[in-house]
Design a protein that fits this description.
single chain; 256 residues; alpha/beta; Metallo-beta-lactamase, Chain A; seven-stranded mixed beta sheet; binds zinc ion; MBL fold metallo-hydrolase; UPF0173_UPF0282_UlaG_hydrolase
Length: 256
């Protein structure tokens, strides 16, 4: 399999001969405001340009949307992607949203979704701690991850916008993925804390799945994601898991 980091959580996953576009945020650099109430909200998003063309990103077999926040599914993605492209979504609410943007080929993921011989399993996540969800649950909403299973491939777990919690722990235990993609930018809400994984969450994943290869994504591309790649790489060395983690730059491909 191949994982190409594009920008933020946007990535191309090649798995069992199929190409998936994950969470497309395709806007030009600095074209929409920072997320209100989050750290560094004075910065405009995205912080960096796309490293490849939108045309190249459109050459896929399907899109996977883990949720529809603006840094995962933006106005340019809605406008530029072919309307007949298959889009996998987490629930009927997101399906309605995607359909209302003109997309005609959507599928809701569940525990036994089959696509071209690949089993896609929707997994739960939580976009912040329990106490953050109590305060901001309506805004943070529902998120999902996806497990990819195929006889000729290693099992892959795309965790999505979640912090470390029992959902992630259960998915690791149940599916024993050999490759785990983690949204690791430590995005911060002012005064409340992190709404995706930070470096300590990544370490927890490594401790729970010590043989898995981790891939860090959702870094250095939106205003509130404060963990740098450099800091995560240094932390992985200090904690002895640098050989278990890839922290690709935008545009870089990790071949597993
Ligand atoms: Zn996000």
């Amino acid at each position: 399999m191949k994982f190409q980091q594009i920008r933020n959580a946007t990535a191309i996953i090649e798995y069992a001969g199929k190409r998936f576009l994950v969470d497309p945020m395709l806007s030009e650099k600095a074209s929409f405001p920072g997320f209100p109430g989050t750290v560094n909200s004075e910065l405009s998003n995205p912080l960096v340009e796309l490293p490849v063309t939108i045309h190249e990103l459109s050459q896929v077999d399907a899109v996977i949307l883990t949720h529809t926040h603006g840094d995962h599914w933006d106005e340019i993605a809605k406008a530029a992607l072919p309307k007949d492209l298959l889009v996998f979504v987490q629930n009927e609410q997101d399906q309605k949203e995607v359909s209302s943007a003109g997309f005609t080929n959507t599928r809701v993921l569940d525990s036994e979704t089959e696509f071209e011989g690949i089993r896609l399993v929707k997994t739960p996540g939580q976009h912040g701690s329990d106490s953050i969800m109590e305060k901001l649950g309506d805004m943070l909403g529902t998120v999902c991850g996806v497990i990819f299973i195929h006889p000729s491939e290693k099992t892959l777990y795309l965790a999505g916008d979640t912090v470390w919690n029992h959902h992630v722990e259960n998915s690791l235990e149940t599916y024993t993925p050999e490759v785990v993609i983690l949204n690791s930018g430590d995005a911060q809400v002012v005064g409340l804390g992190s709404i995706i994984m930070g470096k300590r969450d990544v370490l927890k994943v490594h401790e729970a799945a010590p043989n898995a290869t981790l891939i860090a994504t959702h870094m250095e591309a939106v205003n509130h994601a404060v963990l740098s790649r450099k800091e995560l790489r240094e932390f992985s060395i200090e904690n002895g898991f640098d050989t278990n983690i890839a922290v690709p730059e935008d545009g870089e491909t990790v071949v597993i």
